[in-house]
Amino acid sequence: MKRRVLVTGGAGFIGSHVADAFLAAGWDVAIIDNLSRGRPKHVPRGADFRQLDAGAPEARELVARGRFDVIAHLAAQVVVPVSVADPLLDAEENLLALINLLEGARDGGVRRFVFSSSGGVIYGERPPPHVETAPKLPASQYGVSKLAGEYYVACYQRLYGIEAVCLRYSNVYGPRQDPHGEAGVVAIFGQRLRDGRPITIFGDGTQTRDYVYVADVARANVLAAGAVLPVADGSPDATAINIGTGLQTTVSALGERMMDVAGVRVAVEHEPPRKGELSANALVIAKAQVVLGWRPEVELPEGLHATYAWIAGEPA
Ligand SMILES: NC(=O)c1ccc[n+]([C@@H]2O[C@H](COP(=O)([O-])OP(=O)(O)OC[C@H]3O[C@@H](n4cnc5c(N)ncnc54)[C@H](O)[C@@H]3O)[C@@H](O)[C@H]2O)c1
After folding, report:
1. pLDDT for 20-40, tens place per residue?
2. Best of 6, 17, 37, 99 to mutate for ligand 1, by most ligand atoms within 8 A of CB?
3. Which residues line ligand 1 (CB under 6 A)?
4. Angle at 14 between CA 88 and CA 140, to 5 degrees
5. DSSP secondary structure string, 69-89?
6. Ligand 1 centroid to 77 CA: how many Å?
7. Which of 93, 96, 180, 294 has its CA 20 to 30 A from that of 78?
8. Where are the domains of the chain?
């Protein structure tokens, strides 16, 4: 019998690629998304889609009765400044909805819960690269809600035996990323370059990020759903696995590389650094290799080409 997965947020950027990857691996895929940011056109054919809020009683019911082997939970409020401006909304989306699904998973005897966490904001302003057990210093309310989410997922493992995997992504980029939000510098630069407009860098551009391609992140989700997990002590760090490349690229260098990829030169404008923005980030990914047999396969130039080709084909 086919294994069944529910992908929450599956009409969004990463979630739609995760759904693609599960379908390609032969899973039965159901998706819920409230379409607050997701797009119906990103929902893969072959997935059973319902427009539903992860915090709604119907979502809990679906998880409880859906006979899912795995929940891949990606639905979230993902914009850091929104979490700062409206922390209650952030907690509602990122914590209450998560607990709603975990309660459904408990009722439904779901075997495994794969939670999308963040490997940037939860480590905060400490010198990278970060290992999973590094001290946490969440840089924003979004970082706190992601870290607290990991504690909930780990708690449900301890109390009810729902196997927990918390994937801590670095900066994910690739096709279908929304350039209209505040995150996703590759998507934002790409759209500016396509339209021949200047790009804006906040700060001096020496801040670094660890850019990981979305298809690699999707593959990590499928591996996390099926891997034999080591016996965990039930702590959130034991359930956590960094997903990144370990490489740091400055935002200025990214802008240069993207101009090369797009084959255009535009002006680079600078604005003051944004509050809460990290000066550097990179993740140690040794654990992903050991536990999941995962390594990133798409290098930055190749990933940027694929991403820009997609942006160039989108309507302006
Ligand atoms: N993009 C990154 O670099 C990055 C880095 C670290 C972690 N993450 C995490 O990965 C996950 C996916 O992020 P993304 O970049 O694809 O963002 P996204 O906004 O494209 O996807 C989130 C999806 O969830 C949906 N959604 C939001 N709230 C919902 C709710 N209450 N009920 C149902 N659906 C809801 C949205 O409509 C959207 O389709 C999130 O959990 C995010 O925190 C992303």
Report:
1. 999 999 999 999 999 999 999
2. 37
3. 8-9, 11-15, 32-38, 53-55, 74-76, 78, 93, 97, 116, 118, 169, 171-172, 178
4. 30
5. SEEEE------HHHHHH-HHH
6. 6
7. 294
8. 4-172+211-243, 174-210+246-288+298-313
